[in-house]
Amino acid sequence: MHWLDLFYHPVWVLSTAVLALVVRMQRRGSWDPQSCSVRLKGKTAIVTGANTGIGKFIALDFARRGARVILACRSQARGSAALQEIREKSGNSDVHLRLVDVSSLDSVREFAEGILKEEEALHILVNNAAVSGLPRQITKDGFDASFATNHLGPFLLTNLLLDLMKRSAPARIVTVASVNHKKGEVDFSHFHGENLNYFMDNVYNHTKLHNIICTNQLAHRLQGTGVTANSVHPGIVMTEVLRHYPWSLRFIFNLIGFFFFKTPEEGAVSSIFCALAEEMEGITGKYCDSDCQLVLPAPLARDTALAVKDFEICERLTSKL
Ligand SMILES: NC(=O)c1ccc[n+]([C@@H]2O[C@H](COP(=O)([O-])OP(=O)(O)OC[C@H]3O[C@@H](n4cnc5c(N)ncnc54)[C@H](OP(=O)(O)O)[C@@H]3O)[C@@H](O)[C@H]2O)c1
Predict the structure, then answer these.
(1) What are the boundaries of the signal sequence (predicted)?
(2) Residue closest by Cα to atom 34 of ligand 1
(3) Which of 12, 252, 268, 296 has its CA 20 to 30 A from that of 124?
């Protein structure tokens, strides 16, 4: 017998199949949105970056629960396709597309102005839109494009919508961050594209750390208002998140991902959990992992003095001069 014959043995084939099945099932978290009976009739939700990936499935879940859902997307074509798909799949026609480029402060202001004019209430805001692996680009506001997209734009958007959310309380803000924040560092010159290393996901990791720091500080500021703010890690999810990386890396990611990584639908679960689960009622300033467990973020994300400073700097950077 040749040693390679071992791999054709039925026991080998069977145990490989069982292992693959176990690994695949492990991807499912402990909380199942389908067994959650919360309805969102009469509630309004905004999901940024809702035309693809995790954001699309978050929006679809809200639509299925009867919410008025606003898809905040930057592309008319991609947004319209998602709008049609979500309306069809959910049977909910109260789903709408509003355009916003979260990397531009002017665009965020214009979007928020429209929302404040058109909407009577806002109960859920999911800051989901983000980019990873962008090469160095400076926006017209003078910020590194990844920082503008992932942190400063969403920071401004949240602040502009806060009063509406307070009037609509109870309301929840969910920031889709990442476990990668643990590799991030805080250096305020990064905001302007200085002292950054653009290799792989370096810049992305910093932005995700700022997401959690500022969400925690926001939660602190919102105490007693009925508006909560939490951040989540969605898991490693097979989406278009690697679109700015080399094709070889995307190929390996998708190959391994088939067994080990989450689908976009599975990746949406921790955000949905924070946005509507009864278990999260009144809970604020927390970081939720991809299994919907509240866990401690990195020490830098728990440094209160740093959070106060970070929040104040972001307020100054995003304020109109
Ligand atoms: N996938 C993962 O493994 C993973 C892991 C940890 C955390 N996350 C986080 O999960 C969230 C969703 O990511 P994803 O994996 O679903 O990525 P994705 O498939 O690339 O989707 C990103 C979404 O953000 C939108 N977007 C990007 N830049 C924007 C801008 N300037 N203005 C408005 N919208 C913009 C994109 O719109 P276009 O389609 O028009 O570009 C798209 O709808 C992100 O916050 C990401 O950091 C993902």
Answers:
(1) 1-20
(2) 49
(3) 296
pTM for the structure as a whole: 0.94
Q: Report how far residue 25's alpha carbon sits from residue 37's, in angstroms, rounded to the nearest whole number.
A: 23
CB atoms within 10 A of CB 118: 10
Three-class secondary structure assignment of 148-169:
HHHHHHHHHHHHHHHHHHHHCC
Q: Over the stretch 261-297, which tens digit does the pLDDT of each residue have? A: 999 999 999 999 999 999 999 999 999 999 999 999 9
Strand runs (DSSP E) across 15-84, as ranges?
44-48, 68-73
> What is the position in ligand 1's atom list of the atom closest to the CA of 102?
32
Ligand 1, atom 36, lies closest to the CA of 49
For the Cβ of 219 lying below 6 angstroms from any atom of ligand 1, the answer is no
| CATH-assigned architecture of domain 41-318 | 3-Layer(aba) Sandwich (3.40)
Amino acid at 99: L
**Secondary structure of residue 171 in the 3-state scheme:** strand
Contact assessment for residue 188 and residue 153, using Cβ atoms and an 8 Å cutoff: no
Judge if the beta carbon of residue 49 lies within 6 A of ligand 1: yes
State how far the Cα of 50 lies from the Cα of 176, in Å rounded to an integer. 12
SS3 content of the chain, % helix, strand, coil (to 5): 50, 10, 35
- Residues forming beta bridges with residue 144, ordered by sequence position: 138
CA distances from 118 to 60, 122, 137 (A): 22, 11, 33
Q: Are 209 and 300 in contact (CB under 8 A)?
A: yes
At 101, list the tokens: 């480029």
Mutational pocket test of ligand 1: of 146, 202, 212, 239, the residue with most ligand atoms within 8 Å of the beta carbon: 239
C-alpha 264/C-alpha 56 separation (Å) is: 8
Looking at residue 28, its pLDDT comes to 61
The pLDDT > 90 percentage for the chain reads 88
The residues that are catalytic are: 204
The confidence band for 30, taking pLDDT boundaries of 50, 70 and 90, is confident
